[in-house]
Amino acid sequence: xxxxxxxxxxxxxxxxxxxxxxxxWVLPSKKNRKLIGGIIARYQEIFHIEIYAYxxxxxxxxxxxxxxxxxxxxxxxxxxxxIARRMNWKNRRKGKFWGRRYDDIPVLSQDDLLEAFVYINxxxxxxxxxxxxxxxxxxxxxxxxxxxxxxxxxFTQYGHPTGQxxxxxxxKLSVLPMFEALSKEQRTEKISELxxxxxxxxxxxxxxxxxxxxTLEMLAEQVAGTQPKESSxxxxxxxxxxxxxxxxxxxxKAKHLRQLYxxxxxxxxLGKLDQLFPSFTYKPPLHRRSRKIPFTPLPDxxxxxxxx
Length: 308
What we know:
Number of strands: 6
Distance between the termini: 47 Å
CATH architecture of the largest domain: 2-Layer Sandwich
Number of domains: 2
Structural class: alpha+beta
Low-confidence stretches: none
CATH class of the largest domain: Alpha Beta
Mean pLDDT: 92
Largest sheet: 4 strands, antiparallel
CATH superfamily of the largest domain: Transposase IS200-like
Helix content: 25-40%
Order of helices and strands: EHEEHEHHHEEHHH
CATH topology of the largest domain: Alpha-Beta Plaits
């Protein structure tokens, strides 16, 4: 069962999505970095999204965001649409690009928020692509997290009424709440230390398992559209946390909200449009006009054969 979407502006969200069949359609390159950077920067400005970390690998991406305007869905609808359209055009293909709808995973605590931040920024190391995630040639917030400087990207509108139009946009990172009281120099030192420790730990674990890392030369030899040798389809998590008690509490609350939503949705689709839905959830679409009269069951003899 799909988790309920919500528009709660207080939630920090770990967003991820993978390409269809995990194929490598978004290879790390300067051109792809500029293309996707322009998309993210444009829609961040339009929808006023707070971005804390981002990383785009060959077949999936991660975003750590918060949508104070309650418009996560609009932001990601536009981002995923533009990436799919433009990468399909670039790779001279048509059809499905993303494997399934994006995962919108709520981050439950400040410790989990910091963990998600480090995880996303060191994702190339996590997947055995590069020992140093800072060398990743794709779009990543690794160095921007240290410099805290906005990045300028361009976005080209091909269907503009006046013809092709290119605009410039700034991709900005927000400071994590646990770092706001620190100076910029202190934040840089702390974040750099966290990145180095995480990458060193991953390297030790991979070495103990007899696994190494790819090189920049090996990455450059990858062919668009191929499938990686190793790819696992993991179950969508209900939330992002390492605390078992927080996870249990979240699941209990989610179960209760599902029950309330299901009941409200049932009567809403019958035409009772004054139903109260759980806070920040989306009402289901009405694909046809609501009923003008209450639903009544069919008579018992409705399906009986007609007498000869």
